[in-house]
Design a protein that fits this description.
By secondary structure, this protein is an alpha+beta fold. The chain has a single domain, classed as Dimeric alpha+beta barrel (Alpha-Beta Plaits, 2-Layer Sandwich). The chain is built from four helices and six strands; from the N terminus they run βααββββααβ. The chain has helices spanning 12-20, 23-43, 84-90, 95-98; strands at residues 3-9, 48-54, 58-62, 65-69, 73-80, 104-109. The strands form two sheets. A four-stranded antiparallel sheet has the order 2-5-1-6, covered by helices on one side. The relative contact order is 0.31.
Length: 113
C-alpha cells in the first residue's frame, strides 16, 4: 500500500500568539488537545506506519555550510492509504489545527522505496 509523509505546519506568529495566552488558557488548550490527538492516533492506528514526532528549531545545510533557518515545519508522521485523497481524509479536522494553533498538514506521497 502506498505510503505518505504528513508534515505538520505552524506559522511562527501562531506559536507566538499561543505563547502569549495566559498559562491557564494554554493549559486548557492542552487539556482538550492532547486527549483529542491521542484519540485521533487510536482511530487511525492501522494507517500510521511511523509516528514521527514534533520537531524543534531548524539548521539548514547547503554547499556553503550550515546556519540557523526558519520554516513552519513542526512535526511529521508516515501513513499508508490507498491514494493521496484517502491519506488526506485521515487528517480532516485533526487536533493540530482544530484545537492547537497549527495551520495545516501537508500530505506527500513517497516516490521511492
Amino acid at each position: 500500500m502506498p505510503r505518505f509523509l504528513a508534515v505538520y505546519r505552524m506559522q511562527a506568529e501562531n506559536v507566538a500568539r499561543f505563547r502569549r495566552l495566559p498559562p491557564a488558557e494554554q493549559a486548557a488548550v492542552d487539556a482538550a488537545g492532547v486527549p483529542a490527538w491521542v484519540a485521533w492516533e487510536a482511530r487511525h492506528a492501522a494507517a500510521i506506519r511511523d509516528r514521527g514526532g514534533m520537531v524543534g528549531k531548524t539548521r539548514r545545510v547547503t554547499k556553503d555550510g550550515s546556519a540557523a533557518a526558519v520554516n513552519d515545519l513542526c512535526g511529521y508522521l508516515v501513513v499508508e492509504a490507498e491514494d493521496i485523497d484517502a491519506a488526506a481524509r485521515i487528517f480532516e479536522n485533526h487536533p493540530h489545527f482544530a484545537i492547537f494553533p497549527g495551520d495545516a498538514v501537508d500530505i506527500m506521497p513517497f516516490v521511492t522505496d
